[in-house]
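Sequence of ADF-H domain-containing protein (Cucumis sativus).
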Amino acid sequence: MANAASGMAVHDDCKLKFLELKTKRTYRYIVYKIEEKQKQVTVEKLGEPGQSYEDFTACLPADECRYAVYDFEFLTEGNVPKSRIFFIAWSPDTSKVRSKMIYASSKDKFRRELDGIQIELQATDPSEMDLDVFKSRAK
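Predicted 3D structure, token representation.
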């Protein structure tokens, strides 16, 4: 079903892979890309469970927008292991205006398709989504 705001559909694989991340912890992260020609959001990259936060950030292009989901694991103050699923809207200042507009207008509908997102981040440069930001938001 196309998004009324931008006309973007969400590929079934997007929801399927997210469900695997959420329920089975099959992936550490998922990077999503809008394919303008097909008018849909698709899975661009899947991160293996053992991959690090640095591996994840290296997948985000410096001058193109993306959506991403990251399964952030941490210890509470009482040393209890927990995890939070973050949705990241990556929109670097150096990306094209048209791209920023398409990603911005499609974001809410796409995010609603991924049931189980716990925290949302909007980032225009890597410092807005560094590990300290994740740690402070995950509590």
